[in-house]
Design brief:
Blueprint: H1 2-9, E1 17-21, H2 30-46, E2 50-54, E3 79-83, H3 88-97, H4 101-104, E4 107-112, H5 114-120, H6 123-129, H7 131-136, E5 141-144, H8 152-155, E6 158-162, H9 165-169
Parallel strand pairs: 1-2, 1-3, 3-4
Antiparallel strand pairs: 4-6, 5-6
Protein name: SRR1L protein
InterPro entries: SRR1-like, SRR1L
GO cellular component, one term: nucleus
Length: 204
């Protein structure tokens, strides 16, 4: 609860909706069921009522299913993105689609640690294949979910991320000048299911 409240304590606008990516087949997978249970508790904790999804969990009535490949626009609404154990390209695409200071400041991401990505991926590869993650690192605040021995495989390397407007505005102007859509033509380990292949789903 402390981790998920951290962005709100820092002044981030409370999310009005949630978008979920990457939940696997929770009817037959204990890991996916635990992730779904945490999502439902998280929505209750934050009092978020609308939820769009792709990859396993049916959306609540009202909002459309989330676009595949992570290319979801906030469209002005503060939004929580629940993306546990998703591929790096999904995060990169999401950042690209909302690449503006005022928009990113309304976003909270629960997913793979950006600090962990920075530590594990060679900087040259990170900047070439996942440039939006690389560029936003210094504008990101991150709090890791506490570890629990029962859920080491379920929520390992998972953090809550948010993007304070002040930190974003302190980034160099050239960071915001390039808004080219990612293509991943040179990426050898692309962890994403393309639009024409169907919705993304995490393996069980």
């Amino acid at each position: 609860a402390g981790a998920v409240r951290a962005p709100l304590a820092a002044g981030t606008e409370p999310p009005a909706r949630c978008v979920c990516y990457g939940l696997g087949p929770f009817s037959g997978c204990a890991v996916s069921r635990a992730q779904l249970a945490f999502l439902l508790l998280l929505l209750e904790e934050l009092r978020v009522r609308s939820c769009g999804s792709t990859g396993g969990v049916p959306p609540a009535p009202g909002p459309p299913t989330a676009p595949p490949e992570g290319k979801h626009s906030l469209e002005g609404s503060a939004t929580l993105f629940y993306m546990v154990h998703c591929g790096k390209a999904l995060y990169n695409n999401l950042l690209w689609r909302n690449w503006a200071t005022g928009t990113l400041a309304k976003m909270v991401i629960v997913g793979n640690s950006f600090k962990g990505i920075e530590e594990r991926v060679v900087s040259r590869i990170l900047e070439r294949d996942y440039s939006y993650i690389a560029k936003v690192l210094k504008g990101t605040e991150e709090v890791a979910l506490p570890t629990h021995p029962r859920y080491l495989d379920t929520f390992n390397d998972t953090s809550v991320h948010w993007f304070p407007l002040q930190k974003l505005e302190e980034l160099p102007p050239e960071v915001w000048e390039c808004v080219e859509e990612p293509t991943y033509q040179e990426c050898e380990d692309l962890e994403i299911i393309r639009k024409e292949e169907g919705p993304a789903a995490a393996p069980c």
